[in-house]
Design a protein that fits this description.
The complex is a heterodimer of chains A (about 140) and B (about 300).
Chain A lengths: L8 H29 L9 H7 L4 H8 L14 H29 L3 H19 L7
Helix pairs in contact in A: 1-4, 4-5
Chain B lengths: L1 H24 L8 H20 L3 H12 L4 H26 L4 H24 L2 H21 L13 H5 L3 E5 L6 E5 L3 H18 L4 H11 L4 H26 L4 H21 L5 H23 L5
Antiparallel strand pairs in B: 1-2
Classes of the chains: A mainly alpha (about 140), B mainly alpha (about 300).
Chain lengths: ~140, ~300
């Protein structure tokens, strides 16, 4: 018997989207890290300096290395170490697309409560990602 | 069987030895590449034992790496959240397709826990490291107690779902792989469950640990979900909660790819082996081994935080 049988259609759609977006995130993560380790892109913080500063609290680390906070890393994405954040951002954000894809399905079925829950979860992740609350800007 | 048990015990021993080596070298002149390589090996071993022990890798990661590696706890917690997130995301599709993870049950809990995890992450990043380390030690020792004392109920009896559970249609069906039986389930005590997940979110964000150790008992013993549904749904909740908390750490600059990437990859590779060993190994042996490692790591975090064993 197919174990997927009897599972709600929205659950199967969510599974499919999550599967692909997670794979994408992991591939980007590994490829960018390999490029960093192989020295294909110059890092923002040289590896020798990194050893001396990674024992400091994050605030002090940012000061010593002149690293950005918030979304400032996007301007330095061509740097070997910073490029690794692209895969990390995909992994941390991939649930958003999956949740948004469910909203029309729930609405079509008249399940407004779960459409609202999807949007609420998206809003929470977007607020966290925006840096408004964490002072990232 | 004996060989597989020996392999696993060797892996556990190697884990402890690697950690001890990392502790010895933490202050010495060590080449930079030793640390990501050491992280990969330690996380690979953690991944192997985490699955049969029934806990998330993130629960092992933060206390062990935070106590025995030279990185500041801010970066360790950022990486710990990513380890827990990546593991939960990778397992999510299979759990959803098999009905062991219920999106319907996970969503209401995840919304509250995600929101509170942002608060937890902000509190954790604002607190001095020694205080976070001390509290982490206390929480990890609490997890050890929970693992020793808590009982699981495979198919809890839920005579009647509560009004909120009925309104949200929090029920489902899955085929139990062990028996081939189709299991219908429903939950109760939804309101206390929601409040519990608010607290769990704070802990997950503050300490950067995946909160499967708390999710599963809350879903199983409090809300009455079958233990397999509780474990599967816990992974889904984690994938959403850790996303929110991870963004706070990313925004603060507390995610260093050189720490996070070897950890994520090592843990995921180890977990694949751990999942294969799940059927053939005696869970109780692994569980006791992990409890011992967690006890050691929790005590170390507590002593490091209080300055007794810096």
């Amino acid at each position: 018997m197919n174990p997927s049988a009897g599972q709600p259609i929205e659950q199967l759609l969510y599974a499919r989207l999550l599967d692909w977006s997670t794979r994408l995130g992991l591939v980007v993560l590994v490829v960018s890290f390999a490029a960093y380790m192989l020295g294909l892109a110059t890092p923002h913080v040289p590896l020798q300096q990194l050893v001396e500063v990674w024992s400091h609290p994050v605030g002090r680390y940012l000061e010593l290395t002149h690293s950005p906070s918030g979304w400032g890393w996007l301007a330095l994405v061509h740097r070997g170490d910073i490029a690794g954040l692209v895969g990390i951002a995909i992994l941390a954000g991939c649930s958003l697309a999956c949740l948004l894809a469910l909203v029309p399905l729930y609405l079509r079925r008249g399940d407004k409560a779960f459409a609202a829950l999807c949007l609420a979860e998206v809003a929470v992740v977007v607020v966290a990602a925006s840096g408004w609350l964490s002072g990232g800007h | 069987m004996r060989l597989q048990r020996a392999v696993l015990l060797a892996a556990g021993g190697l884990l402890v030895a690697s950690v001890a080596h990392a502790a010895d070298g933490a202050s010495g002149d060590v080449h930079w590449w030793v640390w990501p390589l050491g992280l990969f090996v330690v996380c690979f071993l953690m991944g192997i034992v985490a699955v049969p022990a029934g806990i998330g890798g993130g629960t092992l990661f933060v206390p062990i790496v935070g106590s025995f590696f030279p990185f500041h706890l801010d970066f360790v917690r950022g990486a710990g959240l990513l380890v827990a997130l990546a593991s939960a995301l990778a397992a999510g599709p299979t759990l959803l397709r098999g009905g062991l993870g219920s999106l319907r049950l996970a969503l209401p809990l995840a919304v509250l826990a995600s929101a509170s995890s942002i608060g937890g992450a902000m509190i954790g990043l604002a607190m001095p490291a020694h205080l976070v380390q001390t509290l982490l030690g206390g929480v990890v020792l609490g997890i050890v107690a929970l693992m020793l004392l808590s009982k699981k109920s495979e198919f809890p009896v839920v005579a009647r779902p509560d009004a909120l559970s009925q309104a949200l249609a929090l029920h489902g069906v899955f085929i139990d792989g062990a028996t081939g039986r189709t299991v219908h389930w429903q939950v109760h005590r939804t309101a206390p469950g929601l409040v519990t997940f608010l607290g769990i979110g704070v802990l997950a964000g503050m300490f950067g640990i995946g909160a499967g150790w708390a999710n599963v008992p809350a879903l199983n013993l409090l809300m009455g979900a079958p233990v397999k549904v509780a474990a599967g749904t816990s992974g889904l909740v984690l994938s959403l909660v850790d996303s929110s908390a991870a963004w706070v750490y990313i925004n603060r600059g507390a995610v260093l790819p050189i720490i996070a990437v070897p950890s994520v990859v090592g843990m995921m590779l180890g977990a694949r082996i751990g999942a294969r060993l799940l059927d053939v190994l005696k869970g109780s042996v692994i569980r006791h081994m992990v409890i011992a490692v967690l006890f050691f790591a929790g005590a170390r975090a507590l002593l490091k935080g209080t300055g007794i064993w810096p």
